[in-house]
Structure formats: C-alpha cells, structure tokens
Amino acid sequence: MGAGQRLPRRARMLKPAEFKQAFAEGARIVRPPLAVAYRRNPLGHPRIGLAIARKAVSKAVVRNLVKRLIREEFRLHQERLPALDLVFYVPPGSARLDAASIRAALERIWSRLATA
RNA sequence: GGAGCCGGCCAGACAACCGCUGCCGCGAGCGAUCGCGGGGGAGGAAAGUCCGGGCUCCGCAGGGCAGUGUGCCAGCUAACGGCUGGGCGGCGCGAGCCGACGGAAAGUGCAACAGAGAAUAGACCGCCUAAGUUCCCAACCGGAACCGGCAAGGGUGAAACGGUGCGGUAAGAGCGCACCGCGUUUCCGGCAACGGAAACGGCACGGCAAACCCCACACGGAGCAAGGCCAAAUAGGGAAGGAGGGUACGCUGCUGACGAUGCGCGACCCGACGCGCGGCCCGCGCGCCUUCCGGGUAGGCCGCUGGAGGCGGCGGGCGACCGCCGUCCUAGAGGAAUGGUUGUCUCGGCGCCGCGGGCCUCGAAAGCCCGCUGGCCGCUAGACAGAACCCGGCUUAUCGGCCGACUCCCGCU
RNA sequence: UGGGGGAUCGUCUAACGGUAGGACAACGGACUCUGACUCCGUUUAUCUUGGUUCGAAUCCAAGUCCCCCAG
Questions:
Q1: In this predicted model, what pLDDT tens digit does every residue of A4-54 receive, in sequence order?
Q2: Is the CB of A69 under 7 A from strand B?
Q3: Which domains can be identified in chain A, with CATH numbers?
Q4: How far is the CA of A91 from the C1' of B149 (A)?
Q5: A74 CB less than 7 Å from any atom of strand B
Q6: N or C, fewer C-beta in 10 Å, chain A?
Q7: Distance A113 CA to B280 C1' (A)
C-alpha cells in the first residue's frame, strides 16, 4: 500500500498550542457520539489530534478504545483528506460508545469533510 | 457420587496482512525529523487512594506540649492500620469462618420516653402485722387502725444494684449454706496474652471510652506537576559603551596569481538629536542604539526504571519469613504507544438430535423438568478492567478455568 | 496524575447522640366581584451499604456521585 497508510509522528498534533488554535479558530462538525474541530494547516497533509475527555468518557478502557478506533480510521482515510488539523472529541451526553457507532460517526465525518 | 471449606495458579492460543512505540545497528539531513533491519511492549487488580516505605526538596541543638493514628499477646518486616502463630469471645455437625478485643476500683460526663426508682437508687400494685401504741370482743393463740417492716412476686424500660435451689423468717433479704458467676491472695504451666488449682471474701465493682479522657507505642512538612540541567521570542532587571554620514588621501593590513573589487585601520571634512533638572554651558537622569550578565516563560533533556526484583536449588523456622548459591533482565509512553482486519484451533456457554430417569396418565403418546467420558465437523472469545516515579499491603470490581489439602453426607467393597 | 472539600424536602438552609425544623415553591382553604398581598392547613428529605450504641442525619468503616486546586 505504501506510505499513504502509515501514521508517522508528523501526522499527529503534538503541542497544546496547536489544540488551542484548533478549538479557538476552527470550524466544527458534530456527529454524535463524535465531533471534530478542524482548521487548515500549511503542511500539505492532514494531522490528527485526540481530545477525549475523562468527563465525557469516564472509563479509561473505553477512552483508549475510542482513540484507537479514531486513529485506525484516520490512518486508512488520510490520503483522501485535505490538509487540515483535525481535533476529535466526544461531545457531552454521548451514551453509546461501541465500535460500530464510532465507525458510523467517523464515516459521516469523512464525507462531510470531503465536501468542505 | 453429592454438598462444602481452605490455599495456590491462569486470565485464550497460533498464523497472515496493515499499523504505533521506545531501545540497538546502518543510512540521509545543519536540524526538527525520516528510511531500512533486529529484538522488547499492560494487570491481578495497572483501579480506589485507605495505610506504610524508598526517593527528592524544604525545615530541624536537645527535650516537652499540642495534634493525628494504632490498641489481647508474641513474632515477621525497610515499615505498616499488613501478615504469621497463639489466647479469649461468637457462629457452624465439621473442615473452618468472624471479631476496633487496653483501661469504667484516675477524673468529668451521658441515659429521651416509660417507670415508684436510672446509680453510694427506689416502693406504684403487692407481701407482712412478730415487736410498740390504741381500739373491737366477756376473753384470746381472733380482728381493726396507727407506727412500721420487706423487696420475694407483678408492672416500666435497652438497662432495675448477682443466678438457681435449700434453709430461714411475721413477711423477707447473701441473713446462712451448696453449686455457678464475680473479686482478692497464693501456687503451678506458659516469653506473654491467658489457662488450671487451692484458700479466702460474702456481693462490693451496672452500661457507654466508634463521649471527653487515661495508659502504652508510633509519627517533622510537602510531594516526580518532587527536584535538577540546557534555554528562543517578547516584556522587564543589572553593567559597560555609544550618533551618523562623506572622501579623488595614506598603510612594509586582509581578500586575490596579479589587478580590479570589497573589507579593516588611520587622517581629513560635514554633523552631533528629543524630554526633565528655572533659562544657557558643563554635568546627571530618562528616551534611542550596541555589546555583555543574571533570573526565567515556551520548548527540550535528566529524574525514568536493576529492584526491600523474578526464577531454580540447598539450609533454618509450626508459620509469616530469613540466609547462602546459581541464573535472568522482564513496558517506560508522555495531546500520551502496546492496535486493526481476517483465518484456524481450543475452553466454557447456547441450540438441535439421541439415550436414560422423573412429573402427568389406567397405560401410553405429546408436553415439561433433570442428567449424559453421547453426537453435530451448528452458533458464539464473551468478566472486571488500561501503566504515568517505584515498591509492600489493604479495600473494591470480576465471565470462567486448572491444581492441591481437608470436612460432612450417601452408595459399593 | 497528585492534593483538598462536600452530599438533609423540588430549591436554599437549620438541628448537645433522643419526634428531622424554617424560608421559598407546589396544592387546598379563608379574605376579595376577580387577581395580587396577607392568614390557616397539607404534601415532600437525611447519597448507599454495613458497624458502634438502648437509640445514628450526627460517631466509625467501605462504596457512589459532585465540586475545587496544581498543568
């Protein structure tokens, strides 16, 4: 498949300031149980950031599961995405957090991003 | 075979493809980083943060008070509120399990309601009329009243100032006696907690200390976001210095083969700012510019995993545990890794079929229930849960499985 | 991740270990032509589970949830 499906360090957001910018200046797409704040970046490729709050997902095992699933789907979709910083988070009040509903939400987010 | 009880262990396996990560090696780049290869990568609770210790910084002459915690005894341990063994009490037929289990004869307190009385108590109902006084009666070993006696019985309460029995008495009472309980002393066993025996006492010493407290013992405070190192930009602090421009001149200065060019130094020329200290000059301060210094933010690095360590053997101890020898290195992330997709197998579970038994029935069928070293190449990985400095415990959550010791019941020999 | 605090009617808030009280709200009634105000009455609570005690909102232990601080 080649380098397009890897997830190197440069494809991740690394600094708190970058997260702050994404939340402060970015647009948002909310598709419960997931949501994403995004803004253009000058790097020529998309970057992923995960902000899964303990308050939104209380159990650590579930938090890790959510993050893994998002990472994996991002890894497989990144070639088709524009150069954006994407900060995923779980909006409050999201009850169902199983693998199927997360994948479904991601699917809707990808198609929305493709038209943005 | 069935019930039960205790201890220990495990927490799906293998393979393929696509990924993440820190370590080692090679390579690219000034660097952030990137590529290739190799081998490593969650737990028994990683959890709650309820205790204890290491480590780090701060504080500290010594001792005491206060505060907090622990609390039968002995031991283990770095330490503990943990563990082991023992004692006592309770539960269980038993194996076993459970227990905040020091002191109420040091002091201060508390006990609503009910009840006569709630702590050096008390007399409502009740029991008694022996003694004393008076009266009734002809009289009395008869009766009544007063003065009194009693605490056995009733009743209240969570709790009522030893229990049972016999004697005793007017009725009663540890008033006397026996046994039990309790207390004191002595002796014996035990390191001790405690247990046993004897003698004496003659009921005094009720309950609550997860009430204040007393006694004994322990504890300095904060926490890896501890703490240390490197260190942009901006603002601010300190120190030193200071405008800037021009030239056709000079140099046994640099660059360059030479030259040219450019740079440096010297000389000369032009020009030396704003605000404040009354005006002007000098000077000083502020502003402005240059260089340096210290603190420090972003960011990076160390702390960061080799340790009261795991495994095996031998030895000591009832045991917790300890000693010696050998051997192994076994997660270190950090906007935060340890994953995703599939296949095969296996453990349990479910379903269907078969067989056996029971219920139902006159008997059966059907149906329901229970069981099986039984079949299917049927379906299904499925508990609690995710490291964040480390370790020893405790507590809480948990689908299930394996091994061993022991107890009770039934059957057979 | 570490440290600290809290939980009482629907809301806010009291209660030496002895019947859980008050205000607002809600409901019913009185007053009024009606409404408001006022007055009277009623309903509703100790986060959960154990333990200590005769007796627990209170004391002790474990758990659950919420809030705050350090980034």
A1: 566 667 788 877 777 877 887 788 888 878 888 888 887 778 888 888 888
A2: yes
A3: 26-115 (3.30.230.10)
A4: 90
A5: no
A6: N
A7: 76
E-state strands within A27-66: 27-31, 34-40, 47-51
Separation of A53 CA and C2 C1' (Å): 18
A58 strand C contact, CB < 7 Å: yes
Question: Dihedral of the CA atoms A22, A28, A31, A35 (nearest 10)?
Answer: 20
Span A73-105, pLDDT tens digits: 888 888 888 888 888 888 876 666 778 888 888
Closest nucleotide to residue A6 (Cα to C1')?
A: B19
Helix, coil or strand: residue A75: helix
